[in-house]
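Researcher: Here's a chain I'd like modeled. Treat it as a single chain, no partners, no ligands.
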Amino acid sequence: MEISSGWRGSGAPLTLSDAVEEVEEEVAGGGRRWQEDPVSADPSESLVVCDVDEALVEKLKAFRFRKATNNAAIIMKIDKDKQLVVLEEEHEDISLDELRDELPERQPRYPLVSLRHHDDGRVSYPLCFIFSSPCDCKPEQQMMYAGSKNKLVKTLNLTKVFEVRTTEELTEEWLKDKLSLFS
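Model: Modeled as a single isolated chain. Structure tokens:
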């Protein structure tokens, strides 16, 4: 599959939804064999590029139910050779600023973050999945990560799912604004 530097050769930046649409067209045209998730009726949600490593699934379940009251994060990436979402790094006592510094600026990643959050005088530790998909990364990477995101989210039953296109977007204020939508 050949991908232009912009959507349909226009020179415009390739957006995530454009990338998914381009993959769907490739699949419909009989290109590379893609796995289908029979649970979903929406084609953009059913496209599965990579599976999730079973050891990672167990680690993420333990992370979800952890008892610690500090900020923590798990950063996941795709192992292109194995076609698997795998663990890249684990962090304890990490701020969002420190997490931002850990993310590559030109490669997608899936950070899963548990941060102390004050809402209406209550303290909670919401589990936030953040799809970091920089605008200037390779379109092939964008499609691989975008196509694998939904399976990862469904596998872990995540509800607070966000996306950033630059690492600079990832700030405490940005996350508080996003979490306020769930209050």
